[in-house]
């Protein structure tokens, strides 16, 4: 892909100047600007940009009306809102109007550049992610097993795992958001969790809750470390993790909603631990 061609829409000449300067310094090509709905339609029709940065508030119109007008001309043109206002209601409306990103003023150069790259990235990025993510999670899993309980796990053959699988007793689920949405599931038995907790604490457990808390933090560390490594490989991923959710009990089934998730069983001195990780193509989170 050559230089990304951008039109800047804002009712403030000062903002247009600042945003244009930032985008130019970041290597983008600003090919036009507009300050009203009609000007936006005219410049988009004539210039056919790859992306438009869009102010949210303008006299007689707003950024969402302008966005809808742009997508009538060409639905493939990406729009990123650049506005001083930012709250949950506005963000929700922006999503509903197929906005590809949202940056709050005053504009930070790295933030807007990353938002543009995320909006413009093609399917190759997901293919790149698929090639590397599971090895990253496996390496982080092994490293932290070694750090926390001085154990080097032996992995069985990697498989594709979908649908529902019977749990060993404890399942820790961590949601992942970013350019693509995903999840990580760590599944193990009560006995394995208790043995790992005793080893990590170097004492007997006080109760079952202590081992559940320990395994929750273990899953949190794995997912957080792995996502940080993926972000360092490509900042466009922008991955963040949600707090772990712990399910446990007898006759527990684990539902894998991520398509084509990868799963592997780690054999350890404490017992089996299943690691399942997957990302969903096209499901992106731009906030």
UniProtKB/TrEMBL annotation:
PROSITE patterns, per database record? RESPONSE_REGULATORY
SUPFAM superfamilies in UniProt? CheC-like, CheY-like
Q: Write down the InterPro entries for this protein, in alphabetical order.
A: Bact_response_regulator (IPR050595), CheC-like_sf (IPR028976), CheX-like_dom (IPR028051), CheY-like_superfamily (IPR011006), Sig_transdc_resp-reg_receiver (IPR001789)
Ion transport is among the record's keywords: no
Keywords per UniProt: Chemotaxis, Phosphoprotein
Keyword field contains Phosphoprotein:
yes
Q: Which CDD domains match?
A: CheX
Function noted in UniProt: May play the central regulatory role in sporulation. It may be an element of the effector pathway responsible for the activation of sporulation genes in response to nutritional stress. Spo0A may act in concert with spo0H (a sigma factor) to control the expression of some genes that are critical to the sporulation process.
- Protein's recorded name: Stage 0 sporulation protein A homolog
> What organism does the UniProt record list as the source?
Clostridium tagluense
| Source lineage | Bacteria, Bacillati, Bacillota, Clostridia, Eubacteriales
């Amino acid at each position: 892909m050559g230089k990304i061609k951008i039109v800047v829409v804002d009712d403030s000449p000062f903002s247009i100047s600042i945003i244009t300067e930032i985008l130019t310094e970041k290597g983008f090509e600003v090919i036009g600007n507009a300050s009203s709905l009609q000007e936006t339609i005219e410049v988009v029709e004539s210039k056919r940009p790859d992306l438009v940065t869009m102010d949210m508030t303008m006299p007689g119109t707003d950024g969402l009306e302008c966005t809808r007008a742009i997508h009538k001309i060409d639905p493939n043109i990406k729009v990123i809102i650049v506005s001083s206002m930012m709250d949950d209601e506005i963000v929700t409306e922006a999503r509903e109007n197929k906005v590809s990103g949202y940056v709050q003023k005053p504009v930070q150069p790295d933030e807007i550049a990353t938002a543009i790259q995320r909006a413009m990235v093609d399917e190759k990025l997901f293919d790149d992610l698929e090639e590397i993510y599971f090895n990253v999670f496996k390496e982080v899993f092994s490293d932290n097993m070694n750090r926390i309980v001085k154990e080097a796990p032996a992995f069985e053959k990697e498989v594709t795992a979908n649908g529902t699988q019977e749990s060993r007793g404890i399942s820790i689920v961590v949601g992942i958001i970013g350019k693509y949405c995903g999840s990580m599931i760590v599944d193990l038995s009560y006995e394995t969790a208790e043995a790992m907790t005793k080893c990590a604490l170097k004492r007997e457990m006080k109760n079952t809750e202590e081992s559940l808390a320990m395994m929750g933090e273990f899953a949190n560390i794995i997912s957080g470390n792995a996502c940080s490594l993926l972000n360092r490989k490509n900042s466009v991923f922008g991955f963040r993790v949600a707090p772990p959710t712990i399910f446990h009990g007898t006759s527990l089934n684990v539902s894998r909603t991520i398509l084509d998730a990868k799963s592997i069983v780690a054999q350890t001195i404490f017992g089996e631990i299943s690691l399942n990780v997957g990302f969903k193509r096209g499901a992106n989170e731009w906030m």
